[in-house]
Specification:
The complex is a heterodimer of chains A (about 500) and B (about 110). Chain A is about 40% helix and about 20% strand. Chain A has about 500 residues and is an alpha+beta fold. In chain A, α4 (about 235-260) links the parallel β13 and β14. With about 110 residues, chain B is of the alpha+beta class. In chain B, α1 (about 15-25) packs across α2. Classes of the chains: A alpha+beta (about 500), B alpha+beta (about 110).
Chain lengths: ~500, ~110
Amino acid sequence: MTTTLTQRVCKSYKVLVGLEIHVQLATKSKMFTGAANGFGGEPNSQVDEVVLGLPGVLPVMNKKAVEYAMKVGLALGCKIAKHTKWDRKSYYYPDLPKNYQISQYDLPLCYEGSFEIPGEDGNPVRVRVRRAHLEEDAGKLLHEAPGGYAIDWSIVDLNRAGTPLLEIVTEPDLTTPKQVAAFGQELQKLVQFLGVSEGQMQMGHMRFEPNINVHITDQDGAVHKTAITEIKNLNSFSVLERATAYEIQRQIRQWEETGDLGRKSTYGWDEPSESTFHQRDKEDADDYRYFPDPDLVPVEPSDEWVAEIKGQIGELPAARRKRYVGALGLSEKDAAILAGDREIGDFFEQVIAGGAEAKRASTLMEALREMSNEKSVPLMKLGVKPVRVAEIAALVVGGKVAASKETAKKIIDALAQGDRPAEQAAADLGLIQSTDTGAIDAAIDALIAQNPKSLQDYKGGKLTALGSLVGMVMKSGKGLNAKLVQEQLKKRLG
Amino acid sequence: MAAESTPSTRSQTLTLNDVRHVAMLSRLALNDDHLKRLTAQLESILGYVAKIGEVDVSGVEPMAHALPLHNVFREDVVEPSLPLDKVLMNAPETDGPFFKVPKVIGGDEDSAG
Protein backbone atom coordinates (compact mmCIF):
# COMPACT_ATOMS: atom_id res chain seq x y z
CA MET A 1 0.00 0.00 0.00
CA THR A 2 1.35 3.41 -0.91
CA THR A 3 0.56 6.66 0.72
CA THR A 4 0.17 9.70 -1.43
CA LEU A 5 1.80 12.73 -0.01
CA THR A 6 -0.54 15.65 -0.54
CA GLN A 7 1.44 18.41 -2.12
CA ARG A 8 0.23 21.93 -1.65
CA VAL A 9 1.99 24.45 -3.79
CA CYS A 10 1.02 28.08 -4.00
CA LYS A 11 1.45 28.81 -7.70
CA SER A 12 0.10 32.31 -7.51
CA TYR A 13 -1.94 34.35 -5.15
CA LYS A 14 -4.08 37.42 -4.92
CA VAL A 15 -4.07 39.62 -1.81
CA LEU A 16 -7.18 41.40 -0.54
CA VAL A 17 -6.74 43.98 2.19
CA GLY A 18 -9.33 46.32 3.64
CA LEU A 19 -8.33 48.96 6.15
CA GLU A 20 -10.02 50.23 9.27
CA ILE A 21 -8.56 53.55 10.36
CA HIS A 22 -9.28 55.53 13.50
CA VAL A 23 -8.52 59.25 13.22
CA GLN A 24 -8.67 61.52 16.26
CA LEU A 25 -10.31 64.80 15.33
CA ALA A 26 -8.59 67.98 16.53
CA THR A 27 -11.59 69.78 17.98
CA LYS A 28 -11.00 72.02 20.98
CA SER A 29 -13.49 70.17 23.17
CA LYS A 30 -14.63 66.55 23.36
CA MET A 31 -17.24 64.78 21.24
CA PHE A 32 -20.12 65.11 23.67
CA THR A 33 -18.98 67.59 26.33
CA GLY A 34 -16.93 70.73 26.92
CA ALA A 35 -13.88 69.16 28.59
CA ALA A 36 -10.68 70.04 26.71
CA ASN A 37 -9.65 67.70 23.92
CA GLY A 38 -5.94 67.44 23.42
CA PHE A 39 -2.76 65.50 23.83
CA GLY A 40 -0.81 65.90 27.03
CA GLY A 41 -1.89 67.58 30.20
CA GLU A 42 -1.62 66.13 33.67
CA PRO A 43 -3.30 62.71 34.06
CA ASN A 44 -7.09 62.96 34.50
CA SER A 45 -7.04 66.75 34.08
CA GLN A 46 -9.32 66.82 31.00
CA VAL A 47 -12.21 65.04 32.60
CA ASP A 48 -15.71 66.16 33.56
CA GLU A 49 -18.96 64.55 34.67
CA VAL A 50 -19.91 63.44 31.15
CA VAL A 51 -16.51 61.84 30.53
CA LEU A 52 -16.82 60.02 33.85
CA GLY A 53 -20.32 58.85 32.93
CA LEU A 54 -21.77 60.03 36.22
CA PRO A 55 -25.52 59.52 36.74
CA GLY A 56 -27.76 62.28 35.42
CA VAL A 57 -25.40 63.72 32.82
CA LEU A 58 -26.49 64.37 29.25
CA PRO A 59 -24.12 64.22 26.29
CA VAL A 60 -24.52 66.93 23.63
CA MET A 61 -22.97 66.65 20.16
CA ASN A 62 -20.01 68.84 19.20
CA LYS A 63 -21.08 70.46 15.92
CA LYS A 64 -17.48 70.96 14.80
CA ALA A 65 -16.73 67.24 15.15
CA VAL A 66 -19.70 66.39 12.93
CA GLU A 67 -18.50 68.94 10.38
CA TYR A 68 -14.93 67.60 10.45
CA ALA A 69 -16.25 64.08 9.91
CA MET A 70 -18.35 65.25 6.96
CA LYS A 71 -15.33 67.06 5.50
CA VAL A 72 -13.26 63.87 5.50
CA GLY A 73 -16.22 61.86 4.18
CA LEU A 74 -16.78 64.28 1.30
CA ALA A 75 -13.05 64.38 0.50
CA LEU A 76 -13.14 60.57 0.34
CA GLY A 77 -15.98 60.80 -2.15
CA CYS A 78 -18.58 59.52 0.32
CA LYS A 79 -22.28 60.21 0.38
CA ILE A 80 -23.51 61.97 3.50
CA ALA A 81 -26.45 60.31 5.24
CA LYS A 82 -29.70 62.26 5.27
CA HIS A 83 -30.46 60.69 8.62
CA THR A 84 -27.99 59.18 11.06
CA LYS A 85 -28.08 58.29 14.74
CA TRP A 86 -25.97 57.24 17.71
CA ASP A 87 -25.73 53.75 19.15
CA ARG A 88 -24.34 52.35 22.35
CA LYS A 89 -21.70 49.65 22.01
CA SER A 90 -21.61 47.94 25.39
CA TYR A 91 -18.59 46.26 26.89
CA TYR A 92 -16.70 46.31 30.16
CA TYR A 93 -13.12 47.53 30.21
CA PRO A 94 -11.32 49.71 32.77
CA ASP A 95 -10.65 52.48 30.22
CA LEU A 96 -14.35 52.87 29.43
CA PRO A 97 -16.11 54.60 32.35
CA LYS A 98 -19.71 54.36 31.07
CA ASN A 99 -19.37 50.67 30.12
CA TYR A 100 -20.47 51.62 26.64
CA GLN A 101 -18.94 53.56 23.79
CA ILE A 102 -21.13 55.96 21.83
CA SER A 103 -20.71 55.00 18.19
CA GLN A 104 -22.70 54.66 14.98
CA TYR A 105 -23.77 51.15 14.09
CA ASP A 106 -26.12 50.72 11.14
CA LEU A 107 -26.44 54.31 9.91
CA PRO A 108 -22.95 55.82 9.50
CA LEU A 109 -22.64 59.55 8.79
CA CYS A 110 -20.63 58.92 5.58
CA TYR A 111 -20.85 55.93 3.24
CA GLU A 112 -19.99 54.58 -0.24
CA GLY A 113 -16.95 56.63 -1.13
CA SER A 114 -13.96 56.14 -3.37
CA PHE A 115 -10.43 57.49 -3.04
CA GLU A 116 -7.43 57.40 -5.38
CA ILE A 117 -3.92 56.71 -4.17
CA PRO A 118 -0.71 56.58 -6.23
CA GLY A 119 0.18 52.98 -7.10
CA GLU A 120 3.67 51.48 -7.19
CA ASP A 121 3.73 51.58 -11.01
CA GLY A 122 2.71 55.22 -11.07
CA ASN A 123 -0.88 54.47 -12.04
CA PRO A 124 -3.54 55.50 -9.53
CA VAL A 125 -5.29 52.81 -7.49
CA ARG A 126 -8.96 53.34 -6.72
CA VAL A 127 -10.02 52.27 -3.23
CA ARG A 128 -13.69 52.10 -2.33
CA VAL A 129 -14.63 53.45 1.08
CA ARG A 130 -17.40 51.48 2.75
CA ARG A 131 -18.18 53.94 5.52
CA ALA A 132 -16.84 56.61 7.84
CA HIS A 133 -18.60 57.07 11.16
CA LEU A 134 -18.09 59.10 14.31
CA GLU A 135 -17.55 57.70 17.77
CA GLU A 136 -15.75 58.55 21.00
CA ASP A 137 -12.32 57.34 22.05
CA ALA A 138 -11.71 55.42 25.27
CA GLY A 139 -9.27 56.41 28.02
CA LYS A 140 -5.75 55.09 28.38
CA LEU A 141 -4.95 51.99 30.36
CA LEU A 142 -1.34 51.87 31.54
CA HIS A 143 0.56 48.87 32.83
CA GLU A 144 3.63 50.65 34.12
CA ALA A 145 3.97 53.71 36.30
CA PRO A 146 5.12 56.95 34.64
CA GLY A 147 8.84 56.62 34.07
CA GLY A 148 8.51 52.94 33.21
CA TYR A 149 8.43 51.50 36.72
CA ALA A 150 6.85 48.08 37.11
CA ILE A 151 3.57 47.93 39.03
CA ASP A 152 1.40 45.00 40.10
CA TRP A 153 -1.76 46.73 38.99
CA SER A 154 -2.95 48.82 36.05
CA ILE A 155 -3.72 52.54 36.08
CA VAL A 156 -6.19 54.61 34.10
CA ASP A 157 -5.91 58.11 32.62
CA LEU A 158 -9.21 59.34 31.18
CA ASN A 159 -7.86 62.42 29.35
CA ARG A 160 -8.33 60.69 26.00
CA ALA A 161 -11.82 59.40 26.85
CA GLY A 162 -14.47 61.17 24.80
CA THR A 163 -12.12 62.42 22.06
CA PRO A 164 -13.99 62.54 18.74
CA LEU A 165 -12.86 59.59 16.67
CA LEU A 166 -13.59 59.04 13.00
CA GLU A 167 -13.56 55.38 11.97
CA ILE A 168 -13.00 54.89 8.26
CA VAL A 169 -13.54 51.45 6.72
CA THR A 170 -12.41 50.63 3.18
CA GLU A 171 -13.47 47.78 0.93
CA PRO A 172 -10.78 45.08 0.41
CA ASP A 173 -9.34 46.84 -2.65
CA LEU A 174 -5.71 47.07 -1.53
CA THR A 175 -3.56 44.33 -3.05
CA THR A 176 0.00 44.92 -1.80
CA PRO A 177 1.58 45.92 1.52
CA LYS A 178 2.96 49.06 -0.18
CA GLN A 179 -0.53 50.10 -1.25
CA VAL A 180 -1.77 49.63 2.30
CA ALA A 181 0.94 51.95 3.63
CA ALA A 182 0.35 54.40 0.77
CA PHE A 183 -3.33 54.61 1.64
CA GLY A 184 -2.37 55.47 5.21
CA GLN A 185 0.04 58.16 4.05
CA GLU A 186 -2.43 59.70 1.61
CA LEU A 187 -5.09 59.74 4.31
CA GLN A 188 -2.66 61.43 6.68
CA LYS A 189 -1.96 64.14 4.09
CA LEU A 190 -5.67 64.53 3.51
CA VAL A 191 -6.69 65.02 7.16
CA GLN A 192 -3.79 67.41 7.69
CA PHE A 193 -4.74 69.36 4.56
CA LEU A 194 -8.37 69.54 5.69
CA GLY A 195 -7.16 70.72 9.09
CA VAL A 196 -9.34 68.19 10.93
CA SER A 197 -6.54 66.23 12.63
CA GLU A 198 -2.88 66.75 13.34
CA GLY A 199 -2.40 63.23 12.00
CA GLN A 200 0.72 62.66 14.13
CA MET A 201 1.32 58.92 14.14
CA GLN A 202 3.61 58.91 17.18
CA MET A 203 0.89 60.62 19.19
CA GLY A 204 -1.69 58.02 18.20
CA HIS A 205 -3.79 60.45 16.17
CA MET A 206 -4.15 57.71 13.55
CA ARG A 207 -4.39 53.97 14.23
CA PHE A 208 -4.62 51.30 11.55
CA GLU A 209 -6.18 47.84 11.43
CA PRO A 210 -5.69 45.92 8.18
CA ASN A 211 -8.09 43.04 7.41
CA ILE A 212 -6.18 40.56 5.31
CA ASN A 213 -6.90 37.46 3.29
CA VAL A 214 -5.36 35.69 0.32
CA HIS A 215 -6.79 33.79 -2.65
CA ILE A 216 -4.24 31.06 -3.35
CA THR A 217 -4.15 29.24 -6.69
CA ASP A 218 -2.55 25.79 -6.37
CA GLN A 219 -0.69 23.68 -8.92
CA ASP A 220 -3.96 22.28 -10.30
CA GLY A 221 -5.52 25.69 -10.73
CA ALA A 222 -7.87 25.33 -7.75
CA VAL A 223 -8.42 28.47 -5.66
CA HIS A 224 -8.17 28.40 -1.85
CA LYS A 225 -9.36 31.40 0.13
CA THR A 226 -7.83 31.98 3.55
CA ALA A 227 -9.94 33.28 6.41
CA ILE A 228 -9.77 37.02 7.10
CA THR A 229 -7.48 38.08 9.92
CA GLU A 230 -7.35 41.53 11.42
CA ILE A 231 -4.15 43.04 12.84
CA LYS A 232 -5.00 45.41 15.66
CA ASN A 233 -3.72 48.85 16.50
CA LEU A 234 -0.81 49.60 14.16
CA ASN A 235 0.50 53.11 14.52
CA SER A 236 3.26 53.67 12.01
CA PHE A 237 3.35 53.36 8.22
CA SER A 238 6.41 51.16 8.39
CA VAL A 239 4.76 48.74 10.82
CA LEU A 240 1.57 48.81 8.76
CA GLU A 241 3.48 47.72 5.67
CA ARG A 242 5.65 45.11 7.39
CA ALA A 243 2.81 43.60 9.42
CA THR A 244 0.64 43.28 6.31
CA ALA A 245 3.50 41.66 4.36
CA TYR A 246 4.19 39.25 7.21
CA GLU A 247 0.56 38.26 7.63
CA ILE A 248 0.12 37.55 3.89
CA GLN A 249 3.10 35.20 3.93
CA ARG A 250 2.00 33.62 7.21
CA GLN A 251 -1.40 32.72 5.76
CA ILE A 252 0.17 31.23 2.62
CA ARG A 253 2.78 29.30 4.65
CA GLN A 254 0.13 27.95 6.98
CA TRP A 255 -1.91 26.65 4.04
CA GLU A 256 1.14 25.13 2.33
CA GLU A 257 2.31 23.41 5.48
CA THR A 258 -1.00 22.22 6.93
CA GLY A 259 -3.74 22.84 4.38
CA ASP A 260 -5.47 24.95 7.02
CA LEU A 261 -7.10 28.11 5.72
CA GLY A 262 -7.41 29.48 9.26
CA ARG A 263 -10.33 31.01 11.09
CA LYS A 264 -11.60 34.54 11.26
CA SER A 265 -9.37 35.95 14.00
CA THR A 266 -7.52 38.87 15.47
CA TYR A 267 -3.73 39.22 15.49
CA GLY A 268 -1.32 41.60 17.13
CA TRP A 269 2.10 42.79 15.91
CA ASP A 270 5.22 42.11 17.90
CA GLU A 271 7.93 44.54 16.83
CA PRO A 272 10.95 42.83 18.45
CA SER A 273 10.31 39.55 16.60
CA GLU A 274 8.85 41.32 13.54
CA SER A 275 5.92 38.93 13.44
CA THR A 276 2.19 38.77 14.04
CA PHE A 277 0.76 36.73 16.90
CA HIS A 278 -2.68 35.26 17.41
CA GLN A 279 -4.88 37.16 19.90
CA ARG A 280 -8.32 35.63 19.66
CA ASP A 281 -10.78 33.95 17.33
CA LYS A 282 -13.66 36.06 16.18
CA GLU A 283 -16.12 33.31 17.11
CA ASP A 284 -15.77 34.26 20.74
CA ALA A 285 -15.90 37.96 19.88
CA ASP A 286 -17.73 40.14 22.33
CA ASP A 287 -21.44 40.58 22.10
CA TYR A 288 -21.71 44.37 21.96
CA ARG A 289 -25.54 44.61 22.12
CA TYR A 290 -25.74 47.77 20.02
CA PHE A 291 -28.88 49.82 20.55
CA PRO A 292 -29.83 53.46 19.82
CA ASP A 293 -28.60 55.88 22.47
CA PRO A 294 -31.69 57.47 24.01
CA ASP A 295 -29.62 60.43 25.30
CA LEU A 296 -28.78 61.70 21.81
CA VAL A 297 -31.09 62.85 19.04
CA PRO A 298 -30.42 61.96 15.38
CA VAL A 299 -28.29 64.05 13.01
CA GLU A 300 -29.93 65.11 9.76
CA PRO A 301 -27.51 67.11 7.60
CA SER A 302 -29.43 69.41 5.26
CA ASP A 303 -28.38 69.84 1.63
CA GLU A 304 -27.38 73.42 2.44
CA TRP A 305 -25.15 72.35 5.31
CA VAL A 306 -23.44 69.66 3.22
CA ALA A 307 -22.94 72.19 0.38
CA GLU A 308 -21.39 74.65 2.82
CA ILE A 309 -18.93 72.02 4.10
CA LYS A 310 -18.13 71.00 0.52
CA GLY A 311 -17.38 74.65 -0.26
CA GLN A 312 -14.88 74.78 2.61
CA ILE A 313 -12.90 71.82 1.28
CA GLY A 314 -11.80 73.52 -1.93
CA GLU A 315 -9.21 71.89 -4.14
CA LEU A 316 -7.76 68.70 -2.64
CA PRO A 317 -3.99 68.03 -2.51
CA ALA A 318 -4.05 65.40 -5.26
CA ALA A 319 -5.93 67.69 -7.66
CA ARG A 320 -3.68 70.60 -6.79
CA ARG A 321 -0.56 68.50 -7.33
CA LYS A 322 -1.80 67.41 -10.75
CA ARG A 323 -2.57 71.00 -11.73
CA TYR A 324 0.85 72.25 -10.60
CA VAL A 325 2.55 69.65 -12.77
CA GLY A 326 0.15 69.79 -15.72
CA ALA A 327 -0.81 73.45 -16.02
CA LEU A 328 2.12 75.15 -14.27
CA GLY A 329 4.90 72.83 -15.42
CA LEU A 330 6.44 72.25 -11.97
CA SER A 331 8.39 69.09 -11.16
CA GLU A 332 6.51 66.31 -9.32
CA LYS A 333 8.67 66.96 -6.27
CA ASP A 334 8.04 70.71 -6.09
CA ALA A 335 4.35 70.20 -6.84
CA ALA A 336 4.01 67.65 -4.04
CA ILE A 337 5.67 69.98 -1.51
CA LEU A 338 3.59 73.00 -2.46
CA ALA A 339 0.29 71.10 -2.76
CA GLY A 340 0.79 69.10 0.42
CA ASP A 341 0.08 72.02 2.72
CA ARG A 342 -2.98 74.13 2.08
CA GLU A 343 -1.56 77.41 3.45
CA ILE A 344 1.73 77.06 1.61
CA GLY A 345 -0.10 76.20 -1.63
CA ASP A 346 -2.34 79.25 -1.17
CA PHE A 347 0.73 81.44 -0.51
CA PHE A 348 2.39 80.13 -3.68
CA GLU A 349 -0.73 80.96 -5.69
CA GLN A 350 -0.77 84.48 -4.29
CA VAL A 351 2.83 84.93 -5.44
CA ILE A 352 1.70 83.91 -8.92
CA ALA A 353 -1.32 86.20 -8.69
CA GLY A 354 1.18 88.97 -7.88
CA GLY A 355 2.67 88.49 -11.33
CA ALA A 356 5.43 85.92 -10.82
CA GLU A 357 5.93 83.16 -13.35
CA ALA A 358 5.16 79.72 -11.78
CA LYS A 359 8.64 78.19 -11.92
CA ARG A 360 10.25 81.34 -10.56
CA ALA A 361 7.63 81.48 -7.82
CA SER A 362 8.41 77.85 -6.99
CA THR A 363 12.14 78.64 -6.76
CA LEU A 364 11.40 81.56 -4.45
CA MET A 365 9.20 79.26 -2.33
CA GLU A 366 12.24 77.01 -1.99
CA ALA A 367 14.25 80.01 -0.75
CA LEU A 368 11.46 80.71 1.74
CA ARG A 369 11.49 77.08 2.91
CA GLU A 370 15.24 77.18 3.46
CA MET A 371 14.89 80.44 5.36
CA SER A 372 12.12 78.89 7.45
CA ASN A 373 14.35 75.89 8.29
CA GLU A 374 17.36 78.03 9.11
CA LYS A 375 15.34 80.23 11.44
CA SER A 376 13.18 77.36 12.76
CA VAL A 377 10.14 79.50 12.09
CA PRO A 378 7.19 78.10 10.11
CA LEU A 379 7.12 79.54 6.61
CA MET A 380 3.75 81.18 7.18
CA LYS A 381 5.11 82.90 10.29
CA LEU A 382 8.21 84.42 8.66
CA GLY A 383 6.27 87.65 8.17
CA VAL A 384 6.93 87.87 4.44
CA LYS A 385 3.92 88.77 2.29
CA PRO A 386 3.27 86.91 -0.96
CA VAL A 387 3.08 90.19 -2.86
CA ARG A 388 6.65 91.01 -1.77
CA VAL A 389 7.84 87.63 -3.06
CA ALA A 390 6.21 88.47 -6.38
CA GLU A 391 8.13 91.76 -6.31
CA ILE A 392 11.40 89.85 -5.86
CA ALA A 393 10.48 87.81 -8.94
CA ALA A 394 9.93 91.05 -10.87
CA LEU A 395 13.32 92.40 -9.74
CA VAL A 396 15.01 89.25 -11.00
CA VAL A 397 13.17 89.37 -14.34
CA GLY A 398 14.02 93.05 -14.74
CA GLY A 399 17.69 92.28 -14.12
CA LYS A 400 17.73 94.54 -11.07
CA VAL A 401 18.97 91.85 -8.71
CA ALA A 402 21.04 88.74 -9.38
CA ALA A 403 19.05 85.64 -10.30
CA SER A 404 20.44 83.61 -7.42
CA LYS A 405 18.81 81.92 -4.46
CA GLU A 406 21.33 83.53 -2.13
CA THR A 407 20.29 87.01 -3.21
CA ALA A 408 16.61 86.08 -2.86
CA LYS A 409 17.23 84.78 0.64
CA LYS A 410 18.99 87.97 1.69
CA ILE A 411 16.00 90.03 0.52
CA ILE A 412 13.56 87.63 2.16
CA ASP A 413 15.49 87.88 5.41
CA ALA A 414 15.31 91.68 5.27
CA LEU A 415 11.57 91.54 4.54
CA ALA A 416 11.10 89.18 7.49
CA GLN A 417 12.71 91.86 9.72
CA GLY A 418 10.33 94.53 8.46
CA ASP A 419 7.87 94.74 5.62
CA ARG A 420 8.68 97.16 2.79
CA PRO A 421 8.74 97.04 -1.01
CA ALA A 422 11.19 94.34 -2.12
CA GLU A 423 13.10 96.84 -4.25
CA GLN A 424 13.58 99.03 -1.20
CA ALA A 425 14.87 96.03 0.79
CA ALA A 426 17.24 95.09 -2.03
CA ALA A 427 18.50 98.68 -2.26
CA ASP A 428 19.05 98.81 1.51
CA LEU A 429 21.17 95.69 1.18
CA GLY A 430 23.10 97.13 -1.78
CA LEU A 431 21.84 94.32 -3.99
CA ILE A 432 20.45 96.44 -6.79
CA GLN A 433 22.53 95.86 -9.88
CA SER A 434 23.50 98.65 -12.11
CA THR A 435 22.00 98.55 -15.57
CA ASP A 436 23.95 101.70 -16.38
CA THR A 437 26.16 100.68 -19.29
CA GLY A 438 28.37 103.69 -18.63
CA ALA A 439 29.35 102.33 -15.21
CA ILE A 440 29.92 98.89 -16.71
CA ASP A 441 32.11 100.31 -19.45
CA ALA A 442 34.15 102.20 -16.88
CA ALA A 443 34.70 98.99 -14.92
CA ILE A 444 35.72 97.18 -18.09
CA ASP A 445 38.17 99.94 -18.97
CA ALA A 446 39.74 99.72 -15.56
CA LEU A 447 40.04 95.96 -15.83
CA ILE A 448 41.58 95.99 -19.26
CA ALA A 449 44.14 98.48 -18.08
CA GLN A 450 45.06 96.26 -15.15
CA ASN A 451 44.96 92.85 -16.83
CA PRO A 452 46.15 92.98 -20.39
CA LYS A 453 46.94 89.23 -20.21
CA SER A 454 43.32 88.14 -19.82
CA LEU A 455 42.48 90.20 -22.79
CA GLN A 456 45.16 88.53 -24.87
CA ASP A 457 43.91 85.10 -23.72
CA TYR A 458 40.46 85.90 -24.88
CA LYS A 459 41.61 87.20 -28.18
CA GLY A 460 43.86 84.16 -28.49
CA GLY A 461 40.71 82.03 -28.49
CA LYS A 462 40.48 80.87 -24.90
CA LEU A 463 36.73 81.20 -24.60
CA THR A 464 36.80 80.29 -20.92
CA ALA A 465 38.62 83.55 -20.37
CA LEU A 466 35.36 85.41 -20.94
CA GLY A 467 33.90 83.90 -17.80
CA SER A 468 36.84 84.99 -15.68
CA LEU A 469 36.73 88.43 -17.25
CA VAL A 470 33.07 88.79 -16.36
CA GLY A 471 33.91 87.69 -12.83
CA MET A 472 36.65 90.23 -12.53
CA VAL A 473 34.50 93.08 -13.83
CA MET A 474 31.76 92.09 -11.40
CA LYS A 475 34.23 92.24 -8.55
CA SER A 476 35.76 95.51 -9.51
CA GLY A 477 32.50 97.42 -9.87
CA LYS A 478 29.79 97.21 -7.26
CA GLY A 479 26.35 95.79 -8.07
CA LEU A 480 26.72 95.26 -11.76
CA ASN A 481 24.31 93.13 -13.75
CA ALA A 482 26.19 90.03 -14.87
CA LYS A 483 24.25 89.62 -18.08
CA LEU A 484 24.90 93.21 -19.13
CA VAL A 485 28.58 92.96 -18.19
CA GLN A 486 28.90 89.94 -20.47
CA GLU A 487 27.15 91.71 -23.32
CA GLN A 488 29.26 94.84 -23.00
CA LEU A 489 32.48 92.82 -22.74
CA LYS A 490 31.66 90.91 -25.88
CA LYS A 491 30.99 94.15 -27.70
CA ARG A 492 34.29 95.58 -26.54
CA LEU A 493 36.37 92.54 -27.27
CA GLY A 494 34.47 91.30 -30.29
CA MET B 1 -16.92 45.49 13.50
CA ALA B 2 -18.44 43.13 15.98
CA ALA B 3 -20.51 40.08 15.29
CA GLU B 4 -24.06 40.75 16.29
CA SER B 5 -26.45 38.61 18.20
CA THR B 6 -29.75 38.29 16.45
CA PRO B 7 -32.56 39.87 18.38
CA SER B 8 -34.65 37.08 19.83
CA THR B 9 -38.23 36.91 18.76
CA ARG B 10 -40.72 36.23 21.49
CA SER B 11 -41.77 32.86 20.22
CA GLN B 12 -38.53 31.55 21.73
CA THR B 13 -38.27 30.98 25.42
CA LEU B 14 -35.44 32.34 27.47
CA THR B 15 -33.02 29.65 28.59
CA LEU B 16 -30.84 29.48 31.67
CA ASN B 17 -27.83 29.77 29.37
CA ASP B 18 -29.14 32.99 27.83
CA VAL B 19 -29.33 34.51 31.28
CA ARG B 20 -25.90 33.15 32.19
CA HIS B 21 -24.51 34.80 29.02
CA VAL B 22 -26.16 38.15 29.73
CA ALA B 23 -24.94 37.99 33.34
CA MET B 24 -21.40 37.36 32.12
CA LEU B 25 -21.64 40.33 29.71
CA SER B 26 -22.82 42.47 32.62
CA ARG B 27 -20.03 41.12 34.83
CA LEU B 28 -22.55 39.77 37.35
CA ALA B 29 -21.55 36.69 39.33
CA LEU B 30 -24.76 34.68 39.81
CA ASN B 31 -25.17 31.18 41.21
CA ASP B 32 -27.58 28.63 39.75
CA ASP B 33 -30.40 29.52 42.16
CA HIS B 34 -30.15 33.14 41.17
CA LEU B 35 -30.02 32.24 37.51
CA LYS B 36 -33.16 30.07 37.76
CA ARG B 37 -35.08 32.76 39.58
CA LEU B 38 -33.95 35.47 37.16
CA THR B 39 -34.74 33.37 34.11
CA ALA B 40 -38.35 33.09 35.24
CA GLN B 41 -38.55 36.77 36.11
CA LEU B 42 -36.94 37.95 32.87
CA GLU B 43 -39.19 35.58 30.93
CA SER B 44 -42.26 37.22 32.40
CA ILE B 45 -40.89 40.75 31.82
CA LEU B 46 -40.11 39.97 28.20
CA GLY B 47 -43.54 38.42 27.77
CA TYR B 48 -45.09 41.59 29.08
CA VAL B 49 -43.00 43.85 26.85
CA ALA B 50 -43.77 41.60 23.88
CA LYS B 51 -47.33 42.93 23.99
CA ILE B 52 -46.00 45.96 22.13
CA GLY B 53 -45.44 43.65 19.18
CA GLU B 54 -49.21 43.37 18.79
CA VAL B 55 -49.46 47.03 17.72
CA ASP B 56 -49.95 47.46 14.00
CA VAL B 57 -47.04 49.65 12.87
CA SER B 58 -47.39 49.16 9.15
CA GLY B 59 -46.89 52.54 7.52
CA VAL B 60 -45.03 53.97 10.50
CA GLU B 61 -41.46 55.12 9.85
CA PRO B 62 -39.02 53.33 12.20
CA MET B 63 -37.61 55.78 14.72
CA ALA B 64 -34.53 55.69 16.90
CA HIS B 65 -35.72 58.38 19.25
CA ALA B 66 -38.96 59.32 20.95
CA LEU B 67 -38.44 63.09 20.60
CA PRO B 68 -39.29 64.85 17.32
CA LEU B 69 -35.89 66.56 17.42
CA HIS B 70 -32.64 66.35 15.51
CA ASN B 71 -29.35 68.27 15.18
CA VAL B 72 -29.08 69.37 18.80
CA PHE B 73 -25.51 70.60 18.91
CA ARG B 74 -23.14 72.50 21.13
CA GLU B 75 -20.45 74.81 19.76
CA ASP B 76 -16.86 73.60 20.08
CA VAL B 77 -16.06 75.53 23.23
CA VAL B 78 -13.88 74.32 26.10
CA GLU B 79 -15.40 74.35 29.54
CA PRO B 80 -13.57 73.73 32.80
CA SER B 81 -12.78 70.17 33.78
CA LEU B 82 -13.32 68.84 37.29
CA PRO B 83 -10.49 69.19 39.80
CA LEU B 84 -8.55 65.98 40.29
CA ASP B 85 -9.90 65.26 43.77
CA LYS B 86 -13.46 65.36 42.39
CA VAL B 87 -12.52 63.17 39.41
CA LEU B 88 -11.09 60.50 41.68
CA MET B 89 -13.66 60.92 44.48
CA ASN B 90 -15.69 57.81 43.64
CA ALA B 91 -12.75 55.63 42.66
CA PRO B 92 -12.43 52.53 44.86
CA GLU B 93 -8.66 52.86 44.60
CA THR B 94 -6.25 55.45 43.23
CA ASP B 95 -2.54 55.66 42.49
CA GLY B 96 -1.39 59.29 42.44
CA PRO B 97 -3.42 61.09 39.78
CA PHE B 98 -4.62 57.76 38.30
CA PHE B 99 -7.49 55.36 38.85
CA LYS B 100 -6.04 52.12 40.12
CA VAL B 101 -7.53 48.90 38.73
CA PRO B 102 -6.64 45.21 38.97
CA LYS B 103 -3.89 44.18 36.57
CA VAL B 104 -5.33 43.64 33.10
CA ILE B 105 -3.77 40.37 32.01
CA GLY B 106 -2.17 40.32 28.59
CA GLY B 107 -3.51 43.70 27.71
CA ASP B 108 -1.03 46.17 26.45
CA GLU B 109 -3.81 47.63 24.41
CA ASP B 110 -6.55 50.09 24.98
CA SER B 111 -10.02 48.98 24.14
CA ALA B 112 -11.25 51.62 21.73
CA GLY B 113 -11.97 50.51 18.22
